[in-house]
Structures are given as structure tokens and as C-alpha cells.
Amino acid sequence: MIPEDNFGSDVMANRTLSAALALEELLVTAQKQDFLTLGIYESAKLLIADPDSVVLCVLAADNEDDVALQIHFTLLQAFCCDNDITILRASGVRRLQQLLRGDESNRNLEEQGDLHCILVTNPQADHCRLQEVGTFCQESRRMDQWIPELTLQER
Prior knowledge:
Layout lengths: L2 H30 L3 E3 L1 H10 L4 E7 L6 H16 L3 E6 L1 H9 L7 H4 L4 E5 L6 H15 L6 E3 L4
Parallel strand pairs: 2-3, 3-5
Antiparallel strand pairs: 1-4, 2-4
């Protein structure tokens, strides 16, 4: 491998890590400000009622084998793309549990509710973390990654 290839992959890895951390911070901040909608059903209701209020859609799953979930994701992705809503996929549902459920993170996901779809609605319009996640999504699309993906690491 030539040094330029290493440099390019290091830069991309740093951008991905930075975007993942920005996403985590954005979700925690949005939750504190009551700007999060959690769950596929609740998200679909909000998207139909007021799509202009949604600035980011996060689709989270660790298991790509769930066909029903993938169908829901496909429909949500299409709706978000049609309405110019930034969308990304994230793996690391356990990390999302830690971030958004706090002390309840050891409980079963089904007992807590659905974290497979998370909508961020109008946090401070100029929130720097929202801009950072949006920039990551734009850069990913320029590199032919239609739906950007991030991996959230448990801590």
C-alpha cells in the first residue's frame, strides 16, 4: 500500500469517528431539548403530519436479517429522500440505549421501546453537531454512499 492510500483511509476513519461522536452529542442534546421522536411508528406519524420539522432521520439496526425492519427502513428512506430530510444508518443500538435511556440501558430493548428510527426535529437551527453530521452525510453521498452509515461504539 502506498502512503497516499494510508493517508486517505486515515482521514476517512477520522471523519467517521468524528461524525459518530457528533451524532451522539446531537442526539443527547436534542433529547434534553425534547426534539427527538423515537420509534418507527411514532416517526412515521410525525413525518406524515409535519415533515418540514424534521432535520435528521437516523435508522438504527445491528441485524440486517430482519426483513420487516428493512422494509420499514426502505419506506422511511424513500419518504426522507422525497422531503429532503438528511438520513443516515447507524449500527450500535446498545450505544443508543446507553445514550438515550441512561440507567435503563440494561433493560431489554422491547421493554424500553423502539430505537430503530430516531427523528431530530428543529434543534437550534445552527447547532454545530447537526452541521457536522449533515456535512458527513453530504460527503458520503459524493463518494457514492447513498445512505451514509456510522457505527456507534459501546463504552
